[in-house]
Specification:
Elements lengths: L12 H8 L1 E5 L2 H6 L2 E2 L2 H7 L6 E5 L5 E9 L2 E4 L3 H7 L7 E6 L4 E7 L23 H16 L9 H10 L2 E2 L9 H14 L5 E5 L2 H5 L3 E3 L1 H7 L6 E5 L5 E8 L5 E3 L3 H7 L7 E8 L4 E7 L12
Parallel strand pairs: 3-7, 8-9, 11-15
Antiparallel strand pairs: 1-6, 2-5, 3-4, 4-5, 6-7, 9-14, 10-13, 11-12, 12-13, 14-15
Length: 308
């Protein structure tokens, strides 16, 4: 029997948002020729203000794509990197794609060919986030457990290290391995800063320690690099708080990942960065790989919604 809503029972905002967070697009010849894909107007009207200049597309094989968004008035297109996405998945005329909007400019994407069947996604070495094989039932159980774990986290749980990491992960913020072993006080500061900043793009956080301030270097999380940075890169662009964009050299670490070096050294000296300062690096432009840096001094004090 179909489930019906009782008379006078309100429609919850959660159910409405869940239904309205999907859209699909049929691939037309013009989409391939123009190498861009327009996001439907009704979706833009509801969620356009939330979208940053970079969208994250997640496909079932576990691969993550960063696609630049072009905005013109009330219109928004997937553009920079979109053609690479199309070519990689051999998308052609007649295919249709289903987009599920999560948050923080992140979409899950399913791709169907002209026969209306989901494609076989290219193999990816990274473990798939959505298992499409015999382990599917196990994957669903694990995903359900993770959802329950997230739901049970409240504002005071950052005092627990495991929940602290889960909260940052939920916000899309990565941590270098060394930064995971921080004091309760630092976890308290980190969550306050993350909630005040609310980064809309992939980000990572560092706690400046003696090796960061004395040796003038900072480690970049391996998982962040694997997802968003070409492994052959030797420099990144860093937008510092005064608006300048600095070219910073990076050096591969013996433990994996990279360290910021030349360029960062000069900046850290100019700004007199100290032990205990917290920095958040937010990926704001994919094409030129620009990271926006926000620094919060160790001496900063918190009110309910401000850093003093």
């Amino acid at each position: 029997m179909a489930c019906t809503r009782r008379k006078g029972e309100p429609v919850t905002s959660n159910s409405f948002m869940e239904k309205s967070s999907h859209f699909f697009k049929v691939i037309l010849p013009s989409s391939l020729e123009e190498k861009k894909l327009e996001i439907p107007q009704m979706f833009v009207k509801k969620f356009g203000n939330e979208l940053s200049d970079i969208a994250t597309l997640e496909v079932p094989n576990g691969r993550v794509w960063l696609i630049g968004l072009t905005k013109d008035g009330t219109k928004i297109w997937f553009r920079d990197g979109w053609h690479d996405f199309v070519q990689y998945h051999s998308i052609s005329v007649g295919y249709f794609l289903v987009f599920k909007y999560l948050k923080n400019s992140t979409f899950q994407v399913l791709i169907f060919d002209s026969t209306a069947c989901e494609i076989h996604y290219p193999y990816n070495a990274v473990k798939s986030k959505l298992q499409c094989n015999a382990d599917n039932s196990k994957s669903k159980h694990e995903n359900k457990s993770k959802m329950v774990e997230k739901a049970e986290i409240n504002e005071s749980d950052y005092e627990n290290k495991r929940n602290f990491l889960a909260l940052l992960k939920e916000m899309g913020i990565y941590l270098p391995i060394k930064c995971r072993f921080v004091s309760k006080k630092d976890r308290h500061r980190a969550i306050h800063i993350a909630r005040l900043l609310k980064p809309r793009n992939p980000s990572f956080m560092v706690f400046l320690r003696s090796h960061s301030t004395i040796e003038h270097r900072v480690s970049v999380p391996v998982k962040f690099l694997d997802k968003y940075l070409c492994r052959n890169s030797r420099t990144i662009n860093l937008q510092v708080p005064d608006g300048r964009v600095l070219c910073v050299k990076i050096k591969k670490s013996t433990r994996g990942g990279f360290r910021l070096q030349q360029g960062w050294i000069k900046f850290s000296r100019e700004e007199n960065l100290k032990q205990g300062d917290i920095g958040i690096f937010e990926l704001i432009k994919m094409k030129d790989f620009i990271l926006k840096l926000s620094v919060y001094p160790a001496t900063a004090k918190f009110t309910d919604n401000l850093i003093l």
